[in-house]
Amino acid sequence: MTSATTETVGTDAGPARITWHPAHGRPRLVLAVSHGAGGGIEARDLKALAARLPEHGVTVALVEQPWRVAGKKVAPAPKTLDTGWRGLWPALAAPGLPVVAGGRSAGARVACRTATELGARAVLALSFPLHPPGKPEKSRAAELLGAGVPTLVVQGGNDPFGRPAEFPEYSGGRVQRSGARAVKGDGWAYELVEVPSADHGLAVPKRAGITQEEAVRVVTDAVVRWAGSLV
User: Where is this region: Disordered (predicted)?
Assistant: First the structure.
């Protein structure tokens, strides 16, 4: 097993950081995932993916945006986040493998907005913020639907930024036994997996019918299965 390594990358938004968790054996993909606007790469879902995906031939790159590296507490405007992500891309693509662009919350929005431009193989959107809490009329669905590549959304059942039932449907979609909803349209496709009872941080209350460990397993199982379908 290869230990994690850290790389600092200069971008037009300032220095960013990548923590590499190499695939065990022959790598097939790079999964690059960044944090949200209110946290870092210590988020439970990001840590779990970095721990599990390498055993399935996926190198995981946990990305810290420049504002986070600089120690700031408030994320900058979306345009600046996109600039930082673009500046990181050559380093993420350097291993010569297909790169899945991903992130949680604000990081998921960045991945969707830039996927086609940067040549991402697919997008992983963890806790996609479909709208601000209590303001469903301010939908960000266009960013998700405009990703232009296969996309997996992993969403908490009680996420105030968008519950699974609020996500846009397509008449050709279908409900699968796994609980995933596959939605397709012209030039884009996404699959949605629900984490029962989970909030925006994919945390579940003690009274839920699922433990926190089981909730995290829903996330990692879904990503392992989906990543396997990309190669």
Answer: 1-20
What's this model's pTM, rounded to 2 decimal places? Answer: 0.92
Which residues, other chains included, contact 56 with Cβ-Cβ below 8 Å and sequence gap of 6+? 23, 224, 227, 228
Question: What tens digit of pLDDT does each residue of 14-58 get?
Answer: 999 999 999 999 999 999 999 999 899 999 999 999 999 999 999
pLDDT tens-digit readout, 107-162: 999 999 999 999 999 999 999 999 999 999 999 999 999 999 999 999 999 999 99
The CATH number given to whatever domain includes residue 32 is 3.40.50.1820
What range defines the domain where residue 198 resides? 5-228
C-alpha distances out from residue 198 to 25, 30, 132, 134, 153, Å: 33, 27, 17, 17, 14
**How far apart are the C-alpha atoms of 21 and 15, rounded to whole Å?**
20
Number of domains in the chain: 1
